[in-house]
Every structure is written in C-alpha cells, then in structure tokens.
Amino acid sequence: MRKRVLVVENEATLRDLLEFLLDREGYEVVTVSEGESAQHMLEQSAKGQAQAFDLVILELLLPIMSGRQLLRWLRRQPSTEALPVLVLTDLQDDDDIADALDEGADDYVTKPFQPKELHARLRKLLRTRSATGAAGSTGSTGSTQ
Q1: N or C: which end of the chain has fewer CB within 10 A?
Q2: pLDDT at site 140
Q3: CB contact at 8 A, 67 and 8
Q4: What are phi and psi of 37, to 5 degrees?
Q5: Three-state SS for 18?
Q6: 131: pLDDT confidence band, cut at 50, 70 and 90?
C-alpha cells in the first residue's frame, strides 16, 4: 500500500516538483498551497471522511495560517499529534530550526534540497512510525544547503 503524503507548499513550482519526485518514489501525494486547506484535509481524514495521511511535508512561510501555526495545531490534536512532520523551508537560521523542532517537527530540511536526501529522511520518518506504531521526534536536525 502506498504511503500517503500531504505536501503543504505555497510555491507552485516547488509543489509540482515535490509531487513529481514523491510520486516517482511510489508515494500517494496530495498537495495544498496554504495552512487552512491542510488543516481542513487533516480534519476530514480524522473524521474518517478522507484517507489518513502517513506524513506531512510543511513549509513554514505560508499565507494566512503559517506553517508554525499549523504545526502547533497538529501537535494539539489527538488524531495528528503523532503524525510525522518534515519541515522543508527557506528559513536557515539556527533559531528557526530549533523553534520548529521544539514545536514538534520531526525533521527539518532547508531549501534548496537534494532529492536523495529528502527521500532518505522521509523513509526514516516512516520507518520510525512503523517501528513504534506512532511517530515520535527523531531528534534529527540536519539541513541541506
């Protein structure tokens, strides 16, 4: 069964690229351009009105509802508190990285990224989730320059 990934990215070109790369690796990919749409989709899956997601790739710099706000919301919901979240963003400052990890991100990758590294990090998060039955923090703080 294909793993289902929600990509929350406001930049259309990158959103399309991520969809292409992830689909090519065998993931079922759903993309949205802003946090409120992602929140709505996650609420629908929690209610059983849509298939659940196995992982979220999240940009922090989103319009209306920021990625940080969505991340905090995810961690407060019983249905998504253990959902793996990989932050993929332009923010490269140590404080931004530490804040996102402290707020519940499971991993953090900066743009531009290397596709092979991104795939490896996704596999790691999904293995961790499978091994524990839920995703906890992986403690990984690596970033791609």
Answers
A1: N
A2: 40
A3: yes
A4: -65, -40
A5: helix
A6: confident
